[in-house]
Amino acid sequence: MSLSRPYPPPTYEAAEGEASAWLRRSSTPPEISYSNGGTCEYLATGDQTAHRFGLYRWTFGETESGPDPHFHRSISEQFYVLSGEVRLYDGRAWVTARPGDFLYVPEGGIHGFRGAGPASMLLMFAPGGPREDYFETLARGEPMSEQERADFMDRHDTYWV
Fold it and tell me: Gene3D superfamilies from the entry (predicted)?
């Protein structure tokens, strides 16, 4: 049986493997805590994965939160629901996703999400852009002028529809 598509070219050329794995313990506290009780945990940042992907655990707070429909030009985004119910916008409608449900959004795909505790999900971006500044800036809740907010969203590849 032949493969229809070959593997990508090697990025590791040494003859022997190396001990380069790292572990993030479940006891590690979240990097961000939002005012509504939600949290964001940096499971694997773009910097840690040579910008191949970024993976985050998002836990919703008591009140419903999440971004309105938007799209990205340079990154794909993936959602995997771990617990509770999360409303996901798939570009056509808001759908209720439950544990084990997965949504893939390619570059340019319109999407959004909404949820409240107790609900959590994994968010993955590929390639791994610097999403940490995006999450941290929004968590601080600093006021921005309309132009500052537009520049911030543009810098973070986020375009509202």
Answer: Jelly Rolls
